[in-house]
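Input record (one chain):
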Amino acid sequence: MYSPAVWPLIGSPLRLAPRIINVVLTALFIAGCTTSTPVAPSAEDVDCTLRGPAVNLKGCDLRGADFSGLDFTGAIFDGANLVGANLSRAVLTTASLVGTNLASANLTSASAESADFESARLSDAVLVEGRFNDAKFALSNCSRSDMSRGVFDGANFSNAALTDAIAVEASFIGASFNVSNLERAKLSKANFSTAEMTKATLTSADLQGSIFDSAILRYANLRFTLLWGANFSRADLREAFLYQSYEAGESGARIIFRSADLRGAQMDSFYEFYEADIHGAKLSGALMPNGTTHP
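The corresponding structure, as predicted from the sequence alone:
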């Protein structure tokens, strides 16, 4: 430590401290400005001509492109424009298509197991006979899409729009449709066994011959639906709204509610219920077709 005799030459420790602090802060500032930081690739860095597994086509304009039969396993299409594109027989397993525009695209017989279509637009798209097991469709728009005979077991359609969609003979075993909108959808002979459909809207949908074995339909809206031949065995329909459409006619295949939980369900004017198979069903608190509440 300097003796007090030399303080006038270099300054006292108290006067020197601010200078040292300023030097240190300046050095840190310069170091921070010169340190390189990772920079995300810009749109210009994406090569939209690439094809094949794991390619990055994020944000690319691929309208009307013909990708039929190509392998895009693990590829990234986030935010891309694939309107009217041909992806029939394409492999999209684990691919990411978040926010992608696939309106009117052809995905016939495509393989897209565990693919991510969250917030994607699939209106008027064709997904006939495709395999979409465990795929994510949450918040997507699938209005007027055709999913007939496709396999969507374990897929997530939560908060998705499927108004006027067609899914005849499709498989949705264990899929999630919580708070989804399937108004006027044609779902005859589809399999929704063990599916989660809490607060789903199925107003005016065609459910004739469909299977809802052990499905969860709490608070679901099934007003004005076509239900002849539908099987709700062991389904959870508590607080659901059930009312068959006038278009159903006076007779049809028997509706099955064997061991279903219909406690608190609203079934006023659902007169076909009296002809249904309700063996073992729970009905306490349900509003019956004659306007009375079941004890």
